[in-house]
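Researcher: Batch entry, complex prediction.
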Amino acid sequence: MPVPCARCNMPLPKWELRNGEAANCPSCGSRNSVRLFPAALAQTTAAHGDTALAGEAACFDHPGKRAVSACQQCGRFVCQLCAVEFGTGVWCPSCVAASSGKARSINSDTSRMLYDTWALSIPLLLLILWPLTIFSAPAVVALAIMKWKRPISLVRRNRWRFGAGLAIALVQGGLWCWLIWYLVAEARIGPKIPPHGYSNPGAVEYYSPAMARPGR
Amino acid sequence: MEQNRVRYRKLPGRRRGFLFGSSVWLGPDHLLLVKSARFREEYKRFYFRDVQAIVTANAPRFHISTRAAAIAVLWFWTFVFANAVANQLPRDIGSMYRYYRYVDWVFWIVAGGLVIAWVYFSAGWSCRCRIYTAVSSDELPSLYRTWTARRFLEKVEPYLTQAQGVIEGDWAEAVEDKQIGPLPEGRVGLAMPNAAAPLPPPATAAKTAFTPASILFVASLCLGGSADLLALRASANVGRWILLGFLLLQVTAAVAVLVQNYLGKLVASLRNLAIVALASIGIWYYAAQIGASFAIAYQNARSRHPSAFPAQMQPLGLLGNPVSRGIAGGIGVLLGLAGVVLLLRGERPPEEKVSFNV
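Model: Structure tokens for the complex:
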């Protein structure tokens, strides 16, 4: 299969590719723009490793194979099959699997949980169901404090979401504390303003039918 | 803090969806494809020396980005504001009022123009872009407009050329007997006659539909919906507390369902039901408030003597409204019935994949 169509994945015919970098797919009819690089023409051969002769250094895991390099982390000899090349160094499969020391940089992240986005979104989204903020506010404060030093996105460089989420959660928590304190105080002391009509005798007098009667 | 952090530069193109997004970044020796699902990001690296081809195909892409949605929301609020202002103007103002009569027309023409432009660019100026290495063939979702793909290639091509060089001569002829990208699933390459058979998929722990959380969740939906409908004739205060109590139970049970699914104990269908239920609760709550607010705002805008109705503006007052309670009950009953069906059905066995051996 020479070059597949980016839309339908069917191979683009050679006569279309001869026209230059643009080729029409005979299957879906879409116009493809193809940029090909030398890696496409490189021969891919499986690494086998040469047999070690007497007196030659052998691979740690394959004693019959000739060593081609030494692991940068543990120093074990590795054959062509075992050698893991990354950047300018070579590592053995054990160190890569253990991801220890210098080999840690090889095992690059493939996914990350965005705790800063959690910390910002939870207090904002739960405003929809605001009674739940009584639970979410302390949870978000704990989350922001616990995960503050955890790595955030690979491509973002600041932690403002943590700060903003923490601030909103603190405000929500403060408002809940104030509300609870207010309700408890009111329940203990009783209402500050007595029911209308008892505390203001003037009003009673004014609205009294007897007072309103003309001639009095 | 992270040691030896790689600095990435943003490349042209970004897909901004409501839930999912994507972008491509330029690293020192690789391209980084970032696929985000709001709270999680997934990364894939394409080293410059490994990239075999980048192919862009014209294809319609009707994607509503958050930016387009923001424009629509801006248009809507400007429209409401302009109408409210126009309706408040005294009729005897003369020439100025004459102009305000055309406000609606102008807004609808602008809206029509925006929609036509979106359809035109989505149908005629959109594309799919794929990047190929020897072992992968990945779509770059952030490149869905042709001009963005062109700018992306202009930026990236020098780095790839610097790492690999250029192909001399007729590459169409040379590439004829080569494999671009990985072999299709189940197909064994001609160059590897003794290639090992693919490993069977790892055994996964059995998932079930019946867990305490899922039963509680479905029961809370059914009972809550029924109770809301039965309590329609009850007083607003009683109905409100029935509604709020069951809502709290439903939300708690839905969160428990999501956690159990995340732990691999519960089937995906009930997780989807929990997501739908949470989204429905949120949408219903906001729709009830926004609907009432709009009704009042519209009434005020039309009225010569605007007056607000504070009692109706209170959110808890809206929850006691029989119409909103009835809608919530109906949604709860429907979702509860769906949950019962999912519980009884359990998880269907996965379909066997068809593979071809050439």
